[in-house]
């Protein structure tokens, strides 16, 4: 049976600078875990270590019992570990539909056929249409991404990442730069993600975190300070001191 992602003793040093040290974290299928902490705590570094963007100085990363520490970022995506970014990474001159077609064709090894008519790849187009419906993007499907509000662009990026059919999805600050009037789009989309998908949310917006996360891990100076349910974290005096002191991140 799939066991998901298991991280043990994960550490990263740049010379004498320690940015992650001794991190243990599990993401079982269906997990909804948030990783929070002050700016510079090492949250994005941790995500980059898990996805293979960075190589750890020590520790192990296992996926379904397999050590993936030596695999490239691309190989980890193929296994089912995918990540969005703090800043949208879309082809703004292409339409929403064309953007979503790209990862589907890439996943199927047919990226050279991305601009063929819909009737040429009915299964691909059906999958793209399903993603458009899932993220309520129907009115925007044939508009260039550059015409979309920022919150809508973040939805497209989330849909694009989901098109890779990940089993572990890391959302790196999905609400970053999104106006408060559009944050509900991101929250609703996270709540609608497949139930068997393991999701790690790195986020500044505590309202979003406490709404969607079943467990929260607090990272400070590259180390885990504490972890627990949202109620436990909300009542923790040290966590409250960090965030009430204006260092929430």
UniProtKB/TrEMBL annotation:
Gene3D superfamilies: P-loop containing nucleotide triphosphate hydrolases. The lineage of its organism: Bacteria, Pseudomonadati, Pseudomonadota, Alphaproteobacteria, Rhodobacterales. One of its GO terms (cellular component) is plasma membrane. InterPro entries: AAA+_ATPase (IPR003593), ABC_AA/LPS_Transport (IPR051120), ABC_transporter-like_ATP-bd (IPR003439), ABC_transporter-like_CS (IPR017871), BCA_ABC_TP_C (IPR032823), P-loop_NTPase (IPR027417). Signal peptide: none annotated. Keywords: ATP-binding, Nucleotide-binding, Transport. This is ABC transporter ATP-binding protein. PANTHER family: ABC TRANSPORTER ATP-BINDING PROTEIN, CONSERVED COMPONENT OF ABC TRANSPORTER FOR NATURAL AMINO ACIDS-RELATED. It comes from Mesobaculum littorinae. Residues 5-246 form the ABC transporter domain. One of its GO terms (molecular function) is ATP hydrolysis activity.
